[in-house]
């Protein structure tokens, strides 16, 4: 399995940074931002090397879908297998790139069916040096929410980074089946700022950032977005809250109804906090996450 990868080797020595987009095939801002970075970064200014994979999950992208046609979520399949299904092979090839890197940035969005509040996250790590670098990278990336989550999540690109002791961050930015220019800009700027923080590029002057909201939540499964506020049944989802809204446990998030609307089931928040991910696609299957609420532990 060969991933479509481009590498810029700097004229000066420095760290090896890997940037991943399109782990999910329906997340578009990362793909565009990754390609723009390849145009912007010049080897005569670069310390170290930049490896970019704009569309890691190309079979999923070509299907216009989150996953390839084996149905496996690539972000639950790491470290993968060289002789496995298409998604397992992609995970394996990406794991090899991760093991060759000193730092990793993995860019996501809410995809077709969800919208996500812009945030940057990392897995809490038992090695204080790795964790220190992740905190620095997340702050340099410059999004308004920083979320450190459980060190025990498995199958993700970040799990492979954790196991290889490679400092890594991921980011989320909107989604809902479109590609927003604001998201592309935020991701290009964020990656350049991290490269400057890692001394791979000259210092970048920027407007002082608003102090981000920083939440570190070590509880098991924190950061596992797909299990939050699951739909109790299949049907038509109609939300009544917005991204970034503060909600309390028991507040109504929306309703699920059958086709005629005879059975209307209110969906109540299971946590108190800020809505950071929200299902925007109306058809929902039983068990799908409807919203992720950022709690302050
Ligand atoms: Zn994703």
Mean pLDDT: 94
- Under CATH, the topology of the largest domain is which? Aminopeptidase
Task: List low-pLDDT spans.
Answer: none
Round the Cα radius of gyration to an integer and report it: 19 Å
Bound molecules: zinc ion
Distance between the termini: 42 Å
CATH architecture of the largest domain: 3-Layer(aba) Sandwich
**Strands, total number:** 15
Q: How would the global form be characterised? A: globular
Question: What class do helices, strands and sheet pairing give?
Answer: alpha/beta
CATH superfamily membership of the largest domain = Zn peptidases
Whole-number count of domains: 2
- Number of H/I helices: 6
CATH class of the largest domain: Alpha Beta
Summarize the structure.
By secondary structure, the protein is of the alpha/beta class. 24% of the residues lie in helices and 28% in strands.
SSE blueprint:
Layout: E1 6-9, E2 12-20, H1 29-40, E3 47-53, H2 58-63, H3 86-99, E4 103-107, E5 114-123, H4 128-141, E6 145-149, H5 157-163, E7 168-175, H6 181-197, E8 213-216, E9 235-239, E10 246-247, E11 252-257, E12 264-268, E13 273-279, E14 283-284, E15 291-294
Parallel strand pairs: 2-3, 2-4, 4-7, 5-6, 6-8
Antiparallel strand pairs: 1-3, 5-7, 5-13, 9-11, 9-14, 10-13, 11-12, 13-15
Helix pairs in contact: 1-6, 4-6
Bound molecules: zinc ion (ZN).
Q: What descriptive keywords fit this protein?
A:
Aminopeptidase, about 300 residues, binds zinc ion, single chain, eleven-stranded mixed beta sheet, alpha/beta, 6 helices, four-stranded antiparallel beta sheet, 2 domains, 15 strands, OB fold (Dihydrolipoamide Acetyltransferase, E2P)
């Amino acid at each position: 399995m060969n991933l479509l990868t481009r590498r810029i080797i700097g004229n000066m020595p420095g760290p090896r940074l890997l940037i991943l987009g399109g782990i999910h095939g329906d997340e578009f801002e990362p793909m565009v931002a990754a390609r723009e970075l390849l145009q912007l970064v010049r080897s005569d200014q670069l310390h170290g090397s930049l490896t970019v994979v704009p569309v890691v999950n190309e079979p999923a992208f070509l299907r216009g879908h989150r996953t390839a046609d084996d149905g496996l979520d690539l972000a639950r399949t790491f470290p993968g297998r060289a002789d496995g299904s298409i998604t397992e092979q992609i995970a394996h090839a990406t794991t090899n790139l991760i093991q060759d890197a000193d730092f990793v940035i993995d860019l996501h969005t809410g995809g077709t069916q969800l919208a996500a509040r812009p945030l940057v996250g990392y897995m809490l790590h038992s090695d204080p040096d790795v964790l220190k670098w992740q905190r620095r990278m997340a702050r340099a990336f410059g999004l308004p929410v920083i979320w450190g989550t459980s060190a025990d999540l498995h199958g993700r690109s970040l799990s492979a980074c954790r196991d290889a002791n490679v400092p890594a961050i991921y980011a989320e930015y909107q989604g809902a089946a479109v590609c927003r220019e604001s998201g592309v800009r935020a991701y290009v700027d964020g990656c350049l700022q991290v490269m400057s923080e890692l001394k791979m590029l000259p210092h970048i002057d920027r407007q002082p950032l608003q102090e981000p909201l920083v939440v570190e939540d070590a509880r098991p499964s924190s950061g596992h977005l797909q299990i939050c506020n699951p739909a109790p049944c299949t049907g038509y989802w109609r939300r009544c809250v917005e991204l970034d809204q503060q909600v309390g446990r028991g507040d109504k998030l929306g309703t699920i109804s059958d086709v005629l609307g005879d059975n209307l089931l209110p969906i109540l928040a299971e946590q108190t906090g800020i809505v950071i991910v929200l299902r925007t696609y109306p058809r929902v299957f039983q068990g799908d996450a409807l919203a992720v609420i950022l709690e302050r532990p």
